[in-house]
Amino acid sequence: MKKIVIMSDNHGDQSMIDYVKEQEQGADYFVHCGDSEAYDIRVLEGFICVKGNNDWSLDLPKEARLNVEGVPIFITHGQYFGYFNRELVMNDLLTRHHCRVLISGHTHMPMFEKDGDFYYINPGSTTLPRGGSDRSYGVLLIDNGKLDFRLKKIQK
């Protein structure tokens, strides 16, 4: 079994990055979906990171890929999905990149949805939640191709 810790949208509050690392010691992977606005990039060491729409000064890729136990995962911030036909655009992205799981942020609202063979995951925001959600991050467990996602509420 592999454990992937996912966070997004801490918007300059670097203490959230340290908090998530401390809470989830022993994770196999740490993923940051963008808008860290890190003023010291070293705080993201050990994370697979993508650039968010507010990460102007950070030299990060717009997307990343990860393959965990044979499960292909696509990671991006999510600012290009829009609000109309969002799932259709996400489905197309996964299809084009031959991935099963999409991990993204941007909306500041948690999501875990299954659509056929595809999974859409958003950990919400560790700092500025929206839509009535709590400050959060996520933990994705992959065991022999089976996925289990747990949303973790920030208790700080």
TrEMBL record:
GO molecular function, one term: metal ion binding
Protein keywords: Metal-binding
Enzyme class label: hydrolase
Cofactor(s) this protein requires: a divalent metal cation
Calcineurin-like phosphoesterase domain mapped to chain residues: 3-144
Catalytic activity, EC: 3.1.4.-
A Pfam family: Metallophos_2
NCBIfam families: yfcE
Similarity annotation: Belongs to the metallophosphoesterase superfamily. YfcE family.
Protein name stated in the entry: Phosphoesterase
Naturally occurring in which organism (per UniProt): Massilimicrobiota timonensis
